[in-house]
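seq:
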Amino acid sequence: MAIAEACRRRERLRFDYAGPCRSRSTRLVDPHSLVSFDRHWYLVAWDTDRTDWRTFRVDRLTPRTPTGPRFPPRELPDTDVATYLAHQLSSRTWPFQATITLHEPAAAVTDRIWPGMGVVEPVDDDSCPLHLGADTPRDLAWMVTSADADFTLTNAPPELTDALHAHAARCLNAVRKA
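struct:
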């Protein structure tokens, strides 16, 4: 509630933050929005010490009270907060990352991409890149195939190729047994 209230009132927020590698820091931010994304809540905020936009998982932060002075609103670097958060999370935080080219226009595939799964970029009427991130190559393979479109690996780790071969073999075996 304290975080949501600081966003609403545009009051500077100070909190202790535990990063993904258990590193601890105290942060001072101008909070913008709270966003639910892929089963977690995130704070999108302007970090005053780093002079840049940052995202923080809410379950990793402990607000310090009182809140600070009010601040003027800032323009997000993207069209909306959900798009910005999706770009941040899919492109930076996962140990395995890939970009694939889907051979359909972005408008045709966007509804088939699960929230939090990846970011589709419109390019032309025939294709669009999909940026993905996951904990394992097997998860990446599932994401790629669940887009239900023809694709080409554009920038992918070699482990994704192996995972796609294993996925294809399992599918072929299932069809042969049917």
